[in-house]
Amino acid sequence: MRTYKLTAYEQTGKLIVEETFTAENDEQAKDKGRALLEEKELTNQTHRLASPAGKLLLFHS
Fold this sequence. Notes:
- This is YhzD-like protein.
- Pfam families: YhzD.
- The chain has 61 residues and is of the alpha+beta class.
- It is 23% helix and 44% strand.
- It contains one helix and four strands.
C-alpha cells in the first residue's frame, strides 16, 4: 500500500482539508480521492491529490 495526500483550499488559500490515505496504486487513489471530495462537497474547490513520489493525480484550481 502507498500513502497519498489530498488537500483542498478556499480561494483565499486557507486550507480546508488535508487527508492522507492508502491505496494499492494511482488509479485506486484517484477513485478514493474523488469519492472523498464528493463526500465533503469539495469538488469545485481548489484541490490536489499527490502520490508518494510527488506526482499530481488530481488537480483543480
